[in-house]
Amino acid sequence: MSPDTGQLALRLAKQIEGSGPISVAEYMRASNGEYYGAGDPFGVEGDFITAPEISQMFGELIGMWLTDLYLRQNSPANCHYVELGPGRGTLAADALRAMSKFEFAPPVHFVETSEALRVQQLQNVPLATFHERVESLPTDGPLLIVANEFFDALPIRQLILTHAGWRERVVVRDRGTKFAAMPGSYPMEGSVPAAFQNSPVGSIFESSPDTAAIMYELSNRIATQGGAILVIDYGYTQPGLGSTLQAVKAHDYADPFLDPGTCDLTAHVNFFELANLARMRNLVVAGPTTQGIFLSALGIGQRALALAEASPDRREDIFTARDRLIKTGEMGTLFKVLAAHAPDWPAPEGFGGPLA
Ligand code: SAH
Asked: 91 CB under 6 A from ligand 1?
């Protein structure tokens, strides 16, 4: 993809010159808005590959997972399939195909801000309804929500401990299309948990207000309407310090402060916080576990064997894809899986084992 290199950099540079530094969150929001708005970053030719693009097995197993919950809840009426940031729509297409084998064909709702990606999603899932925000999702029945590599793309706020105390990390102009991060001037002690107040100078505390707002709203919905949410992403399971902001371009790490809008800016997802937000609304939380444990428990091994038997010429590719999804050192342990469901819904499959 080739977004208008330099255009966003110029706009942000002018904004900073005119009214002062912007927050890391504001910078990340502007950069990713431009980046995803420009089109399709996925695949071998693009900047990064996500699990559903590696193999159909990923979406199919998630479809089975949703179907299993739905059937054990005695097939409630008016269930909706909801996906946050569906990318190319591949996961949804694979999941819905698997679900349809059990005559489970709920209406599909995509929460997606990129117009360019919406066009592509419609090619894979022609009947999808789009939402700019989670607030407009239907209120008339249970929501079955999937979010794969969604929350890592949302803006994060960073607070940094200086000799003068905690400050928000802000972005200033360096030169050309290059920017730099530095501590802002307002005290931010109030926004750092007590456990981290006395950390070494230079420590960075991250939070994602957008993630919290979305998770809280969806937890509320599930508590009143029924259903469940499945979150898969790279992230951490205990609160911690340190910057996890990174940029990915052409399958390699890049400088997050160079050429905003031309690379994917991501941050690790705080699963501890996601679980707490769900529990605040009295949802029952399963996990977090690892993607390797989750997919193995759902039967990726058997599914790979069945696919290989049906297409012997693709045997090696199928096994390689399975390994990429579940092996330690590949996506198996880096990616975490968390589910939260309404208290009167059954416990989901896939979370049997402890976190590896
Ligand atoms: N789930 C897909 C794509 C992950 S990339 C996959 O696994 O392949 C992140 C996705 O989230 C993209 O579709 C992007 O356009 C979308 N997105 C990013 N920020 C968003 C926001 N604030 N609201 C809705 N969608 C967003």
From this structure: yes
pLDDT one-digit tens code per residue, 138-191: 999 999 999 999 999 999 999 999 999 999 999 999 988 899 999 999 999 999
- Among 34, 40, 111, 114, residue to substitute to test ligand 1 (most atoms within 8 Å of Cβ): 114
Q: What is the mean pLDDT of the chain?
A: 95
Task: Say if ligand 1 is within 6 A of residue 112 CB.
Answer: yes
Pairing of strands 165-175, 178-187: antiparallel
Question: What pLDDT is recorded for position 356?
Answer: 37
Q: Is 28 in the pocket of ligand 1 (CB under 6 A)?
A: no
Q: Which of 205, 191, 196, 214 is nearest to 159 (CA)?
A: 205
Mutate to test the pocket of ligand 1, among 62, 110, 112 (most ligand atoms within 8 A of CB): 112
Residue 354 confidence class, pLDDT cut points 50, 70, 90: very low
Tell me if 184 CB under 6 Å of ligand 1.
no
- DSSP H helices in the chain: 7-19, 24-37, 51-54, 56-72, 90-100, 115-124, 209-225, 271-280, 291-297, 300-310, 315-326
Cβ pair 152, 267 in contact under 8 A: yes
Task: Measure the CA–CA gap between 163 and 201, rounded to whole angstroms.
Answer: 6
For residue 196, how far is its CA from the centre of ligand 1 (angstroms)?
31
Predicted confidence at residue 46, as pLDDT, reads 85
Q: What predicted TM-score, i.e. pTM, was given to this entire model?
A: 0.96
